[in-house]
Design a protein that fits this description.
The protein is α/β, with parallel strands linked by helices and 380 residues long. The protein folds into 3 domains: 20-217, P-loop containing nucleotide triphosphate hydrolases (Rossmann fold); 223-302; 306-379, Arc Repressor Mutant, subunit A (Orthogonal Bundle), CATH 1.10.10. It contains 17 helices and 10 strands. The protein has helices at residues 21-35, 52-65, 83-102, 107-118, 126-148, 163-166, 171-181, 198-201, 208-212, 223-236, 243-253, 257-269, 280-303, 308-320, 328-335, 339-351, 368-379; strands at 42-45, 69-73, 155-159, 188-194, 215-217, 240-241, 277-278, 325-327, 355-359, 362-365. A 5-stranded parallel sheet has the order 2-3-4-1-5, with helices on both faces. A 3-stranded antiparallel sheet has the order 8-10-9. It is globular and about 60 Å long. The structure holds adenosine-5'-triphosphate and magnesium ion. Adenosine-5'-triphosphate is lined by residues 8, 10-12, 17-20, 46, 48-54, 229, 257-258, 261. Magnesium ion binds next to α2.
């Protein structure tokens, strides 16, 4: 079996990471601020598969090179039901990171001592509970920073899939309050990544969350970036690719990182055992495979959870729009519904990352291949 250098299931390895220069520069600036006792935070937002986790891993590498302690958190859905769980979860993760770096005491003992000292169960009133939680969490974080300080210049908290924290009532505001208040005493930098809603909702007002976690929105990869990635990966396996084929992949993927890497994976997968050139004949052989793979692994899980009405509206839009961009007025005409009837469904499609809103009153279906998929579902 031949080794395939592409893997759409895994975030990019930092050594094969391409692009995202503006985001990286911002991160580096804010990191330097934080390391010099003036903490700054940020957030990264982007649709499914746009490269948020990959970027966090790049941030992790940079922060570690700068002698910072890095704690990357995700998958808390089962661990975090409320703010108190969140405090425990964050503190526990920082502590275990410090211990794993220092190799001092055993983590198990610390965990045993950890929970009881907090005694959350005594507090029944939500507000009171929250204030006490805040105070205890702050103290805990400062203590953890004191422990880490001799060896590290800052503690960088990378919080992936942060959209699930938006569902925990008040959690992001809570984090903002806590980290703002300790910023003069401890060098913590918090980076949120996910399909975040707060930048959308409050983009017009200058909201505290937007100010505390200024948002970087991930865009499509450029042609140059995709080319660089392809060539670097293929070189490891001594495989060449024609310019024509690069163009095809660039165009079809539209710079969407997941779609792009999935295409690369499937194309490489179709290469014969002894072949060492990717050209247009190979692409022709792979086209159907790409289509069915994307339908199954990416598009269908996005389409099927939609409400019945949102599906109908989406189908009407896909059927009528010649390209993947359309206006609200057109959507009204095509769906034969009023604007006020339509708007909650348009909102649903925006929230689920199926539509983007590049300008006022203009919408864009996130990927042309998705549009084609919807048309086929409708017929099938
Ligand atoms: N900057 C990049 N350079 C190279 N490959 C990338 C880059 N960004 C993303 N990719 C590739 O795109 C795919 C999706 O990336 P990633 O998992 O980071 O996206 P995500 O936004 O975290 O997705 P999800 O919304 O599902 O969590 C991965 O296969 C990854 O290797
Ligand atoms: Mg991710």
């Amino acid at each position: 079996m031949r080794f395939n250098p592409f893997n759409p299931q895994q975030p990019a390895r930092p050594d094969f990471f391409v692009g995202r220069e503006p985001e990286i520069i911002t991160f580096e600036k804010f990191l330097v601020q934080t390391m010099h006792n003036s903490p700054m935070n940020l957030s990264v937002t982007g649709n499914r598969g746009m490269g948020k986790t990959s970027l966090l891993m790049k941030f992790e590498q940079i922060a570690k090179e700068n002698s910072c302690l890095v704690v990357r958190l995700s998958n808390y859905e089962s661990n975090v039901k409320d703010i108190i769980d969140l405090c425990d979860f964050i503190a526990l993760n920082i502590k275990s990171e410090i211990l794993s770096k220092k190799n001092l005491e055993s983590l198990g003992e610390w965990i045993k001592a950890f929970k009881p000292t907090l005694g959350w169960n005594d507090f029944t009133l939500t507000l009171e509970k929250k204030q006490v939680a805040q105070e205890l969490f702050r103290q805990k974080l400062i203590k953890l920073w004191e422990e880490a300080k001799p060896d590290f210049k800052a503690i960088v908290l990378l919080i992936d899939e942060a959209e699930s924290l938006e569902k925990v009532s008040g959690a992001l505001t809570f984090l903002r309050e806590v980290f703002q208040r300790i910023s003069s005493e401890a060098n913590y930098m918090v980076v949120l990544a996910g399909k975040l809603n707060f930048p959308e909702r409050m983009s017009e007002s200058f909201s505290p969350l937007n100010r505390f976690f200024p948002t970087q929105r991930l865009k499509s990869l450029s042609r140059q970036e995709m080319k660089e990635y392809l060539e670097r990966k293929l070189k490891t396996e001594n495989v060449e690719i024609t310019d024509e084929t690069v163009n095809y992949i660039v165009e079809k993927s539209e710079g969407h990182p997941y779609v792009f890497v999935a295409m690369c994976y499937l194309i490489f997968d179709s290469l014969g055992e002894k072949d060492s050139l990717i050209d247009s004949t190979l692409i022709e052989r792979t086209a159907l495979k790409i289509k069915s793979h994307l339908a199954k692994d990416f598009f269908s899980p996005m389409f099927h959870p939609l409400s019945k009405k949102a599906k109908e509206i989406l189908i009407a839009i896909c059927k009528n729009s010649k390209k993947n961009e359309f206006t609200l007025k057109e959507a009204i005409k095509w769906s034969k519904e009023t604007g006020s009837y339509l708007s909650p469904y348009i909102l649903e499609l925006l929230r689920k990352g199926i539509l983007n809103k590049p300008e006022r009153a203009t919408y864009r279906i996130f990927h042309t291949l998705f549009l084609e998929y919807v048309l086929e579902v409708k017929e099938g």
